[in-house]
Amino acid sequence: MPIYEILNSSNTVINRVVADLEFVQNAYPGKFREYVEPQREFILPKIITKLSFRFRLTDSEYVGILNASKTDIAVQAWVETFNMVTQIDLNDQRTKDGVALLVTKNLLTQARANTILTAPVQDSERPSVRI
Questions:
Q1: How many C-beta atoms lie closer than 10 Å to residue 105's C-beta?
Q2: What is the pTM of this model?
Q3: How far is CA 99 from its chain centroid?
Q4: How far is Cα 110 from Cα 1, in angstroms, rounded to an integer?
Q5: In sequence order, what DSSP letters do the residues of 2-35 get, joined into one string?
Q6: Is the separation of the CB atoms in 120 and 52 below 8 Å?
Q7: Residue 4 pairs with which residues in a beta bridge?
Q8: How many CB atoms lie within 10 A of CB 125?
Q9: Are 105 and 72 within 8 A, CB to CB?
Q10: What is d(CA 86, CA 52) in angstroms, rounded to the nearest whole number?
């Protein structure tokens, strides 16, 4: 059943009622309008798969990170943590800190880090949802 907004003499909404059209036409002649619920915008989280994150890196960036992990314990810790997670939340501070570490180790430029973290998430990058 539809929802109608009841209007006062200034056409200001004073109430909402669930009713049929015939009722509001008889009870509030000329002082009603159908209520249309505003559209809500859903903002999806910036979560991507590990593979999608990996492919946000160039091959040379990724190889550089793997090579650095052999001699730099901080980079090794980043790689091991990356291998442990199942997905990447680009808004998570730990993700941002990990990418910032790669910048301090000259494995990424700041511009590339910004691109990796802020590029719009494509549907193909999102984890699939199982119901």
A1: 16
A2: 0.67
A3: 19
A4: 56
A5: -EEEEE-TTS-EEEEEE--HHHHHHHSTTSEEE-
A6: no
A7: 17, 34
A8: 19
A9: yes
A10: 11
Q: Which long-range contacts (CB under 8 A, 24 or more apart) does 97-102 make?
A: 101/74, 101/75, 102/65, 102/75, 102/78
Quote the CA–CA distance of 15 and 59 in Å, as a whole number: 61
Per-residue pLDDT of 9-66, as tens digits, reads 999 999 999 999 999 999 999 999 999 888 888 888 999 999 999 999 999 999 999 9
Q: How is residue 82 written in tokens?
A: 């990356």
Which residue matches tokens 């000259």?
A: 106
**Tokens 């910004």 belong to residue:** 114
List the domain boundaries for the chain.
Answer: 3-34, 47-125
Measured between alpha carbons, how far is 113 from 101 in angstroms, rounded to an integer? 10
Say if CB 108 and CB 116 are below 8 A apart: yes
Q: Give the integer Cα–Cα distance in Å for 104 and 84.
A: 22
